[in-house]
Amino acid sequence: MNELQQVLLIFAILVIAGLYLLNKAKSKKNPSRPSGKTDNVAVETKQSQGLNDLGEPHLPLSEKTRHRLNVDEIAEDESVPDAQLGLFFGQEFDIKKTADRQSDHPLSSVEQERRKPEEILIKSDDEIEPELPKAFDRETITERSPKTQEKVTSPAEEKIFALIIMGSDDFLWPKVNQTLQGVGLLPAKSGIFIKNDTMENELIRVANILEPGTFPLEEPINSEYKIAGLVLIVTLPTSVPASSVMNEMILMARKISQRLNGRLYDVERHLIKESDLQAMCDAAAEYDNVS
């Protein structure tokens, strides 16, 4: 054994001795605790005592508590009818209808009259008479003039008036074109001249007296074309009163005839007189009254 081994052996002995002394010193400071076995025995003892105490009598009950317990036991023993437990399949509650109860108390005659449904008479459109204002009665309406009734019931019939302008010689086309546009007439796509109102509704037409009644509007300054005569036409009704458009046509015919050095004729080519023109105005006024 060399010196190193001796030194290690002595060191090991010293460590073991020191541990022993240290453990012994600790055991002196802390008193010894009961072992785990002792604790287990104490727990088992307490459990056995608790089981044994189950059989011991409880504290005595009061008289009210005993009486309540007796009442509950009697109620449990009482038999409950099947009708109270539930309804069997197919059974229904016996409830009287409201109508049966009301039949026990008949209504008075006044209440029965009030509860009767009101009779509503439905008339057809032909039977319904319009309500009239207070200021009018049926006699006033029936006393209307036949003209007024005709105005309401039937539309005005179409009526045509015409005037012809001719001269001793044929008119030159450029002069006719300038004159017609000078009195307010405009060339139309149909090849004639027309006068419209502010809403572009046709009032007066001016056509060539010869068939097909059109003018050479494509050549307005061609002097080779000559016009034998002009026809002014008004077809009633128009957008303005008949008397107004009639006066307009007569005035326009006078201007054209004066500028072209022509004369006025009727549709049968009879020379027009002032009385004939007045008759045309009267016919237009009568047309207004009828329509």
Please tell me about this protein's structure.
The chain has 291 residues and is an alpha+beta fold. It has a domain at 156-290: 2-Layer Sandwich (Cell Division Protein Zipa, Chain: A), CATH 3.30.1400.10. It contains eleven helices and six strands. Helix 10 (242-259) runs antiparallel to helix 11 (274-290). The longest helix has 27 residues, at 3-29. Mean pLDDT is 75; it is low at 87-93 and 132-153.
Strand content: 5-15%
- In round numbers, the mean pLDDT is 75
Kindly report the CATH topology of one domain.
Answer: Cell Division Protein Zipa, Chain: A
- What count of helical segments does DSSP give? 11
Query: What is the CATH first-level class name of one domain?
Result: Alpha Beta
Low-confidence stretches: 87-93, 132-153
Residues in helices, as a percent range: 40-55%
Largest sheet: 6 strands, antiparallel
Q: So, the CATH homologous superfamily of one domain? A: ZipA, C-terminal FtsZ-binding domain
Q: End-to-end span in angstroms?
A: 162 Å
**Counted beta strands:** 6
Rough outline: elongated
What topology emerges from the helices and strands here?
Layout (H helix, E strand, L loop, with lengths): L2 H27 L6 H18 L9 H15 L4 H4 L12 H7 L4 H7 L22 H5 L3 H8 L5 E14 H10 L3 E2 L5 E4 L5 E7 L17 E11 L5 H18 L3 E3 L8 H17 L1
Antiparallel strand pairs: 1-5, 1-6, 2-3, 3-4, 4-5
